[in-house]
Structure formats: C-alpha cells, structure tokens
Design brief:
By secondary structure, the protein is of the alpha/beta class. The protein contains 20 helices and 13 strands. The radius of gyration is 26 Å and the shape is globular. The protein binds 2-acetamido-2-deoxy-beta-D-glucopyranose (NAG) (6 copies). One 2-acetamido-2-deoxy-beta-D-glucopyranose binds next to helix 14.
C-alpha cells in the first residue's frame, strides 16, 4: 500500500513538474567539430524533449535515431573535421587555431538552411549556445529569434567565463587552463600564471576583438565594443565542472555547475570485449587518447614504446587506436579496437586503470567510475586536468615528449597501487554527494531562464559587466582621491617658492 501511495505521489509530482513550464521551442547552437563537446549537451537535449519541449539543433553531429519534436540543421558538410596533432600545441599555435576557426565558424551563418532560418522571422523561447570561442559569433542570433540565450561550456572553465557573468578572475589563486598549476601556487607559479593570464587577456582583447568586430560588421551589420560585450546578453552559463571534483572557486549565480551531465546510464558491453575482460586473470587496463587527437600523429616509435610497456604487464590492455599499426608486434595481452564504449568499460569491476589524454570528459567519466588514471596530456586543458588529479593523488602522469616504455610501465604500476584506488573512491563519493544530479540541475536552470525570460538577462550576474575598465578597477576613485592631494601639494610648493623669493 505504502509503495502504491509513493508511486502515485511520484507520478503526481512528475506531472506537476512537467506542467510547470509549458512546451517551449528551443534552438541549440553547437558548432563544435569535437564530437565529445556535443556529447555533453545531448543528455540535456533529450531530457528537455522528455519534458515536452521542441528542439532544433544546429550541429555537426545529428542523432542517428529520429525523435519526435527534435530536428537538426546538419552543418557537417561545411567544416572539415581537423584533428589535433600530438605535438606542437603551444600557446601561440592555439591562438592561431582559435582565430582560424572563428572564420570557419562564421561561414555557418551562410549555410543555406541557417541563413533561411535567420531570415524566416521564426521565434524561439530559448537559445542554448556552446560556450567556447564560437559563442561571440552566434550570440546575436538570440536577438534575431527573440529569445534569451544561455551558454553551455563543455570544459571546466573558459578564459572569459567569469567576466561574462560579471566576476573578476583573481590570478593569485585561479590558475589559467594553460598552466601546470592548481590553486596553490608558489611565487614562480604565480608569476607564470599572471603572465599567461595577461597574455590570454591581451591576445583576446586585441587580436580576437578585431576579428569579431569584422564578423559582426559583415554578418549582422552591428558594431561591437569587445568580445565580452558580444556575450553580455547571456543569461547564464552551464559548465562541465563540480567544485568537489576539481577546485572550489567563488562563482556568480549565473555559472551553474553541471559536471558529469554527459555520463549516461551504463549499457551492456559488446560480447567480444566482455569476453576479453572476463578472461583476464589480473584485470584490465584501458588506453585511449580521445576523439580530438589524431592517433596517426603518435608515430611508430611512440607506439612501439607503448606496446612494449603493455607487453610487460600481467594485466590485459584494451587500446583505442584508429590508425595504421604494425600488427606483427602486437603483444598477446593487448587488444586494439577503433572505438570502445569508454564509460561502460570504465564501470566494469575488472577494469583497474585508465591511461588517458585527460580530456575533461574522460576525466569525469573516470571519477564517476572511481578508477585511477595515468594521464598523458597533449594540449589545452589536458595538462591542467592532469595536474589537478596528481594533486589529489588519484593519477600519475607521463610526459608525452618522453613517452618511453619504462616510464609508462612504472607509471602504470605506481597508479595500480592501492593508494590511488582508495583516493579515487573518496573523490568519487565527493563527486556524487550533491543535492541534485547534474542533469536535473541543468534542466531546472534552463527552464528557469525560460520562465523568467524578461528578467533573466540581469538576474544571475553582477553589475560589473556594465562597468568600464576604470570603474571596475576603481581607477576613477583613486583619481578622485589623488587629484586633490596632488593639487594641494602643488599649491603648497608654489606658495613656499613665492614666500622664499620675497
Ligand atoms: C511534441 O510536442 C507537442 C507540443 O508542442 C506535444 O504535444 C507532443 O506530445 C510532443 N511529442 C512527443 C512525442 O513528445
Ligand atoms: C543584446 O540584446 C539587445 C536587446 O535585445 C540587442 O539590441 C543587442 O543587439 C544584443 N547584442 C548582441 C551582441 O546580441
Ligand atoms: C606538471 O607538474 C607535474 C608535477 O606536479 C609534473 O610531473 C608534470 O610533468 C608537469 N607537466 C607538464 C606538462 O609540465
Ligand atoms: C613493423 O615493425 C618492424 C620492426 O620495428 C619494422 O621493421 C617494419 O618495417 C614495420 N612494418 C610496418 C608496416 O610499419
Ligand atoms: C515580457 O515582456 C513583454 C513586453 O515587455 C510582455 O508582453 C510579456 O508579457 C512579458 N512576459 C512575461 C512572461 O512576463
Ligand atoms: C611556474 C610553472 O609551473 N609554470 C608552468 C606552466 O605550465 C607549463 C606547461 O604548460 C610548464 O612548463 C611550466 O613549468
């Protein structure tokens, strides 16, 4: 009887919850060519569909299975899916890549179906845009379709995320993504962090701003002061972060942590992989460099070292590797596949360790499943992600440049010691200990913006977004105090001089 009452209460509650926000039309703009980025927003799209909303998604990765009330504008024909090389990803090169991508993103506005949509006068109730370097280019679409706009950041953080929501980034304890430091920095690390942050700020403010201004003039016919101002209409930003998993920082109410949202329910593992795992007497190690890195650029030499290290392990190894390989050298305990269901494999009790490039999606899946990691970071936020895991003593790293057989072998054995598993189980528990699941959190705040459309633009951010540089840095106040002082000194000096003359 009790359970019937409970079930009834759940049904009534769900019905009420669904009824709360009426069916809305939502435009999703995710221009990324990184499939892993789109994977982060997909669960939100499907939950919003469950709740009766209609969604049009502009994406490179339309769902294979059709679903009622979900339509796509497939832009995959437009942009080549270039992959990252495994070397030479310095800061200058990264910025060049960002600028180059910006022009490519802008061509999406000329895509016939996108252009037709923008001319059609069709209205939406909400725009969800990927929060990345592409956001400034697509932000004005919200005005065109007369909807509020929210950002969705597939990474932990992004250089201008705080600024857009009206908060300063304090470089004394907030590391840039591009540095190998956490929130506890030595004097030298703070110097490095300050210089890198300033460099990022300057390059975006000077180089990126001019690129964005040009795109605005050509595509929207509007003037814009700065990249930050182009995103001033964002009502909130959801981010793939959770404070207990990474670092606790102050956050304005408009930055909503939904870290782990992409981790969907477990599915059964394909038969051949399942057999391979179940026949392993000493457990299994997984290896993957993710979907954005070109595995071909790994090179025969590094591959040799990796396989040599694996051949010395008593564990079995499943390796995701999608490139030409030297088959004759494959050790007996290694299975190479072009793709594997990473999240499901990580959850298998016999899988002991993940050797990964430490992309954020992989890191979160590893924490979700409570397995230690060997991080081989290659570019961007991966160095930072690895560093965070090292600090928490749940991972060991091998420098990609010095990826040698014995180093990798030692790192694997170190990470397999009990300490790392114990620490990772604790981190897993901290990650799970929250009032609502990441997906529920994302749905709540998305519908919150829809419900409060008219107010949402100012509701969750501080007024700092509207202050000038000199206002928000109190330069005018200092001037107001200093000027009379300087004038007073000047007048006193002049008077003294005159008195002395007489
Ligand atoms: C599609 O949306 C309409 C509301 O616009 C709703 O009545 C219908 O049930 C939805 N269909 C599905 C399968 O969710
Ligand atoms: C922000 O919103 C205002 C008012 O709706 C609009 O005039 C302006 O063009 C928008 N800015 C951008 C960059 O979309
Ligand atoms: C980052 O710091 C760790 C030590 O905490 C070090 O082992 C690692 O090699 C460093 N990585 C890079 C890319 O500098
Ligand atoms: C495979 O590896 C061996 C030994 O390193 C080498 O001699 C041979 O050329 C390689 N074959 C291919 C197809 O790369
Ligand atoms: C939002 O504002 C418009 C015009 O200012 C008004 O017509 C509309 O009813 C408002 N919507 C809500 C939900 O308050
Ligand atoms: C001071 C410091 O730790 N600087 C590091 C910043 O990050 C780079 C890697 O991207 C390291 O090489 C530096 O040592």
């Amino acid at each position: 009887m009790k359970s019937i009452v409970f079930a009834y209460a759940v049904v009534v509650f769900c019905a009420l919850a669904v009824a709360q926000t009426k069916s809305s039309e939502i435009l999703v703009i995710f221009p990324t060519t990184a499939q892993s980025h789109y994977r982060v927003v997909r669960p939100l799209i499907h939950r919003l569909l469950d709740r009766g909303h209609k969604i049009l998604a502009i994406t490179n990765f339309p769902d294979a299975v059709e679903r009622a009330n979900l339509s796509h504008i497939d832009i995959s024909g437009l942009k080549p899916h270039s992959k990252f090389e495994t070397n030479n990803n310095g800061i200058i090169r990264s910025i060049k890549r960002v600028i180059g991508n910006t022009y490519t993103y802008a061509t999406i506005l000329n895509h016939p179906t996108v252009a037709k949509l923008l001319r059609s006068g069709r209205k939406f109730d909400l725009v969800i845009a990927e929060f990345f370097t592409s956001t400034p280019i697509f932000a004005p679409i919200a005005t065109v379709v007369d909807a509020p706009i929210v950002g969705f950041c597939p990474m932990i953080t992004f250089p201008w995320m705080n600024q857009v929501m009206g908060m300063e980034t304090t470089v004394s304890y907030m590391p840039t993504l591009l540095n190998n430091s956490t929130d506890q920095m030595t004097f030298l690390q703070r110097i490095s962090n300050t210089v890198k942050s300033a460099f990022i700020e300057v390059s975006f403010n000077w180089i990126y701003d001019s690129v964005i201004r040009e795109i605005y003039k050509n595509h929207y016919g509007i003037q814009t002061e700065s990249t930050i101002k182009t995103m001033a209409n964002l009502s909130m930003i959801m981010t793939n972060d959770y404070h207990s998993m990474f670092l606790p920082f102050p956050k304005p109410p408009g930055i909503i942590e939904v870290g782990g949202i992409h981790v969907v329910d477990e599915k059964p593992i394909p038969q051949d992989l399942n057999d391979f795992i179940n026949n392993a007497d000493h457990g299994v190690v997984l290896f993957s460099l993710g979907s954005v890195v070109s595995e071909a650029s790994l090179g025969a030499d590094k591959l040799c070292h990796i396989l040599d290290a694996f051949s010395k392990l008593k564990q079995r190894v499943i390796m995701k590797f999608d490139a030409e390989k030297n088959k004759t050298q494959l050790p007996a305990n290694v299975k190479i596949v072009k793709w594997f269901p990473q999240r499901d494999l990580l959850a298998h009790p016999k899988v002991l360790l993940f050797i990964s490039h430490a992309g954020i999606m992989s890191v979160i899946e590893t924490i979700h499943c409570g397995k230690p990691m060997v991080g081989i970071p290659i570019f961007g936020d991966q160095i930072f992600n690895t560093k965070l895991l090292i600090e928490k003593q749940v991972a060991v790293t091998v420098d990609y440049k010095h990826l040698e057989s014995n180093r990798l072998f030692n790192a694997i054995n170190e990470a397999l010691t009990e300490k790392y598993t114990i620490n990772m189980k604790k981190l897993q528990q901290l990650y799970n200990d929250r009032p609502h699941s990441p997906l529920e959190t994302a749905v709540y705040w998305t519908e919150y913006v829809i419900r409060n459309k008219n107010e949402s633009k100012e509701l969750l951010k501080s007024q700092k977004v509207h202050l000038n540089f000199y206002q928000s840095n109190l330069i005018d106040i200092f001037a107001a105090f200093l000027l009379p002082l300087i004038m007073a000194i000047y007048i006193i000096q002049r008077t003294m001089k005159r008195l002395r003359k007489h």
